[in-house]
Amino acid sequence: MPLDTSTYHLALLRLDGRRWNELRRLHAQISTQASADGSSYLEMGNTKVICTIAGPAEVRGAARREGAERDNAVVTVEIGIAGFSGVDRRRGGGGGGKGRGDKRTTEMQNTIASAFQSTLFTHLYPHSTITISLHILSQDGSLLAACLNAATLALIDAGVPMSDYIVACTSGLTPPKSGTESADPLLDLNGMEEQELPWLTVGTLGAGERVSVLVLESRVQVGRLEGMLAVGVDGCKQVREILDGVVRRQGKRVLESVIS
What we know:
Elements: E1 26-30, E2 38-44, E3 47-58, H1 61-66, E4 74-81, H2 103-117, E5 128-138, H3 143-158, E6 166-173, E7 185-187, H4 191-196, E8 199-205, E9 211-216, H5 222-259
C-alpha cells in the first residue's frame, strides 16, 4: 500500500479525523418502504439516500409492442434530489424533482442502469422493466457510490436475482508535498475533499477485484491512477462486508418472524 499505517503520524489525519484508508460511518437498512417491491436506506457519512424498486413488471400496451423483440428486462433509473440536500442548490425546478434535468444526474442514471443491466439476471424477465428510484436526501461526497450501494440492497430486498453485490466507494489524491511530485491516495472522500482533490468512483462485483464501475471525475496523471484504484478496490471490500452484514441480519429477522 502507498502508506504504512503502523507509522501514520497524527498530523496526517484528515479534517474529519480519519486516516487515509478509513471509511466514514456506513449505516444501512432494507425493507424500509412497505409499499415498494424492494427498498433501502443508506448513509455514507452525511450522504443519505433512499432507494425503492418497482418490478420486475411486465410491459403492456404500446410500450410492449415497441419492445416486443426484447428477451431481457430493461433496467431504468430515476434520481430525485431534494432541494435541501446540499449547499449546491441549482436554479430552476423545485422539491424532490430538482436535479432531474442536470447533466451529472443523467450521467449517474446511465451509469447505474448500465451497471445493473449487466449484473442482474434480466433474461429471467423478458418484456419487463425494473425501475430503480433513488431519492437523495443529503449530499456530502461519494454520491454515486452511495446510490450504487443503496440500489444493491433494494434489489436484494426485492428478490431480483443477480450474480453478486455491486459495491462502490471513492478514492482521491492528496496534493503533492512541497518540493516533491508524490501524492498519497485517500479512501471515501467527503464533499469538501471532492471539491479540492482529484477523485474517482470505483464499483466492484462481489468480494473480488472485478471492477464493474469506474468513473473518473477529474484529471489525474496515469502513473497515480493505479494507486487510487487499488485503494478504491480495497474500500469496496470493506463496504461489501458491511452490506452483507445488513442483508444477513434482515434475513435472520425474517426467518425468526416466520418461525415464531
